[in-house]
Specification:
Strand content: 15-25%
Oligomer: single chain
CATH class of one domain: Alpha Beta
Order of helices and strands: EHEHEHEEHEEEHHEHH
Helix content: 25-40%
Radius of gyration: 17 Å
CATH superfamily of one domain: Spore Coat Polysaccharide Biosynthesis Protein SpsA, Chain A
Shape: globular
Distance between the termini: 33 Å
Number of strands: 9
Number of helices: 8
CATH topology of one domain: Spore Coat Polysaccharide Biosynthesis Protein SpsA, Chain A
Length: about 250
């Protein structure tokens, strides 16, 4: 059956992986991807051309940003120009499995809140991969966030209520937004299915503690949080500090 109008927002700086991300949208289990619009927002460069990216069975919008806007700024621009009833995010170096929208959209329709799923985490340089599965409970958001942005799907009205991403703390803007939503009482639901592949690289912003530490201090100050470690999703897989929330398994 056709999807309702869905806007997918992809911030990008990785030219070599963007086609993989787009292809994963094109292969979603749906009879009608014409109800999907995709925004590719290129940070610090001119927009991609259609000749560079090719054609797809959905509406494709190509935007560019001035340098230094970051993923948070790019997502905000995509939100501003999008028109979908439902909003989904996909980072340029990640990909969805074919069941992602088919599983998440009905649950978002039901809850009218935020839905996120588990993912398979691939460490590009070290060559290992494992399921990223963490229990979700609202209280854990004062310590960490288990929400990989590429698995997040929500409603447009949620952004109208909560606001956009905070560009002053780009490394933690997704955690900040989820925490704001939780404190406003927005339903947040973990769907315990792997519907995305998340690729972690040492080239990622989240792999640079020197950049993340000052932003973590801003996040802690903004939300009056206690001490928490500087971490990324890959570190959450191995650091004992996060073990109490991690769900073991194959």
């Amino acid at each position: 059956m056709p999807y309702p109008k869905i806007s997918v927002i992809i911030p990008t700086v990785h030219n070599h992986t963007i086609k993989r991300a787009l292809s994963s949208i094109a292969t979603q289990n749906s009879s009608d991807l014409s109800a999907v619009e995709v925004f590719v927002i290129r940070d610090g460069q001119a927009p991609f051309t259609r000749q560079e990216l090719g054609s797809y069975p959905f509406t494709l919008h190509l935007l560019g940003l001035l340098p230094g806007q970051g993923a948070a700024g790019a997502r905000n621009v995509g939100l501003h120009f999008s028109s979908g009833q439902y909003i989904a995010f996909l980072d340029d170096d990640d990909e969805w499995l074919p069941n992602h929208l088919a599983l998440t959209i009905p649950l978002v329709e039901k809850t009218q809140g935020i839905v996120f799923t588990d993912a398979e985490l691939y460490h590009v340089q070290e060559g290992w991969h494992e399921p990223f599965r963490f229990e979700y409970q609202p209280s854990m958001l004062t310590k960490t966030s288990p929400v990989i942005p590429s698995t997040l799907v929500t409603t447009r009205t949620t952004f109208e209520e909560i606001g956009y991403f905070d560009t002053q703390i780009p490394a933690y803007s997704d955690w900040d937004w989820i925490l704001r939503a939780s404190r406003r009482g927005v339903p947040i639901t973990r769907l315990p299915e792997i519907t995305a592949n998340y690729y972690f690289s040492i080239d990622s912003t989240s792999s640079r503690p020197c950049k993340m530490a000052p932003e973590l201090r801003k996040l802690r100050s903004k939300h009056h949080l206690g001490p928490v470690p500087v971490a990324n999703f890959a570190k959450m897989m191995t650091d004992p500090w996060f073990a109490k929330w991690r769900i073991p398994g194959p």
